[in-house]
Amino acid sequence: MGESNVSQILSREIRLKQRPVGVPKEGDFELVTVPLREPREGEVLVQNIFMSVDPYMRGRMSERESYIPPFPLGKALEGGCVGHVVRSVGGRFREGDLVLSMLGWREYYLSDGTGLIGIDPSLAPIQTYLGTLGMPGLTAYVGLLDLGQPQDGDTVFVSAASGAVGAIVCQIAKIKGCRVVGSAGSDAKVTWLLEEAGVDAAFNYKKVGDLSAEVAKHCEGVDIYFDNVGGPHLVAALDQMKPCGRVVLCGMISQYNITRPPRGPGNLILAIIKRLTLRGFIVTDHLHRQQDFLSDMSRWIAEGRIAWKETIVEGIGSAPRAFLGLFSGDNVGKMLVKLGPGARE
Amino acid sequence: MGESNVSQILSREIRLKQRPVGVPKEGDFELVTVPLREPREGEVLVQNIFMSVDPYMRGRMSERESYIPPFPLGKALEGGCVGHVVRSVGGRFREGDLVLSMLGWREYYLSDGTGLIGIDPSLAPIQTYLGTLGMPGLTAYVGLLDLGQPQDGDTVFVSAASGAVGAIVCQIAKIKGCRVVGSAGSDAKVTWLLEEAGVDAAFNYKKVGDLSAEVAKHCEGVDIYFDNVGGPHLVAALDQMKPCGRVVLCGMISQYNITRPPRGPGNLILAIIKRLTLRGFIVTDHLHRQQDFLSDMSRWIAEGRIAWKETIVEGIGSAPRAFLGLFSGDNVGKMLVKLGPGARE
Question: What is the ipTM of this complex?
Answer without folding.
Answer: 0.92
